[in-house]
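Budget justification note: compute hours in this period were largely spent on complex prediction jobs such as the one shown. Inputs:
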Amino acid sequence: MSEPILKVEDLRTYFYSYAKEAFIRSVDGVSFSIKKGEVLGIVGESGCGKSITAQSVMGLVTDGPGIISGSILLTYNGKTINLLEGLSDYVSVKTRRKAILEIAKDVTGWLKRSEILMRGVRGKVISMIFQNPKSALNPFIPVGEQIAESIMLHSGISAKKEAIGAAAKWLERVQIDSPSMRLYDYPFGLSGGMCQRVMIAMALSAEPALLIADEPTTGLDVTIQTKIIELLKQLKEELNLTILLITHDMSVIMQLADRIAVMYGGRIVEYGLKREIMDSDSFIRHPYTIALLNSLPTVEEIKMKERLRAIKGDVPDTIILYRGCRFYERCDLKNERVKKRCKESEPEMIEIGTGHYMRCWLAEE
Amino acid sequence: MDLIASPKSLISSPIFNYMKFIAIKRELGLDRGIAVQYLSWLNNLIHGNFGSSFRTGRPVFSELIKVGVNTLILTIGSLIVTLLIAVPIAIVSSLRRRPFLSWGLTLFAYVLSALPVFWLGYLAIYIFTKKFNLFPFLSAGAVSGSKLNWLYFLLPIIVLGIGNGSISEIIRHLRAQLERVLSEDYIKAAKAKGASIWRHSFKEGILIPVTTMVAAKTPFILGGAVVVEQVFNWPGMGRLAWQAALDRDYPVIMGITIFAAIVVHLGRLSQTIVFAFVNPQISEKGEDA
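Corresponding output:
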């Protein structure tokens, strides 16, 4: 395959908490890349930093005190740009007592430049669909007009009538019945599933190089979820879409993703092709991935009315600095041999197969 | 039954003529019971007749229309001044980009709103007529021919716009609403598709709160107009009301009250119309907006 469209290296997004006077390390050194026509699924529990990763890529987390660092390399039309260019370490934190850490002096200037840069990227090169589609559409504007706006902004069509016509075509593409009538509906008049279809139409109407789907099925009925996944799958085939899929739902990942990044506590703990991670039992997997997979009940288990196997404990507090493995407390597989090591030092990403990486001491053995 | 301060005290004062007094009282209809007087006034009102002024004898309605236009110019003008000050400050401080600038501006605006309008008015007159000698102390329009006529015309509008006390409340309300709207999911989504967040937040974040506040503040601005018209000798409804109150000119006072009530409710009506126009889901969301 070709060069990656998006290459994220060592991305860190920290938020500063005035109450605790410490950083919340939402995303803590994440690296991944997406090639053209590929679906990369980022999976993990709530609060593990998936959405913040996506929003960092979109440049949507520039508000508030904190740090963003690393590099986000975007390749478009043969050119590669770093979306975090000029930002070696961006800190804009001031506490009440003393000004700390103003490493990058020209924060405001950088934000301005970034905003100008991102304006050319958002919607046109990377577009995004959100969870809870009903609240992500503007309730005061008819859906057709919202799609048309996106088309007029990015596709070089300036006549509104023409754009509305194009919007109708897109509504048809996302399989909405009688699209020419739905154009004039407001979001409150549409069901959640319809709203998500509208969101998808809006995101794809500018024909972006990359689509970020941030929990596209959350907040929808289960039957609608299946249909939305089915739709995304079809559109991916038709338009050769490149998708960064973010979800906590293993079944969504199984159906859509080509490659998977499992995130835990702000870090990627396992990264590789889907077939290597999911489809075969013989390969080694990260204990967290195993726990996630185990938490999905099989048909037999549902028939037997067995209890669901939830992962014990909670997601780790990302304020605390960990010396050891972040999954240590909840890990089922830690044995006496590696226990000390797990507790005292954090494992690096280790390649255990072609393109299959894992952050676990067990893998080293 | 007589009213406590009945016009008879005015009419009758220096040379008391009982027969003339009775005749005038009968002519004005003041010898009837107060309930009858009220009902007859109501009846006239329904037929579009506001009665005649005790003082001038002219019909109240035409009198009101004449001065009402002036008051309308004053109140609408000062409303625009208020919004011109309040809206930019609210927008700047809702962005939270420049805390010191927004604190400074907000403090400035709060101090402005706390100034009493009569004091501000006299201060303005003092500065412009005494200190700079820009124009004589006359009523608006009276110094025609002077180059600074427009300034004397604008001065009361600006004074009422600053001193009506609603700047701070408009800032607070608008900032709170704008902050809420700017953190909505759909604004983030609009940003993600590369659209302008202001285009998307305008209706819910600016138009609705501003209309709400304008409708709510109309009575206060009318109240402030009474003072400002008095101070600047502005030939408007407020000055007429003041004059009528001194003269015990009841038909005029009642006419002005009704007029003011109508204006206030027109403000409310325009708010409802804007809501219905802005919000397609008015029946469900309009109430709390």
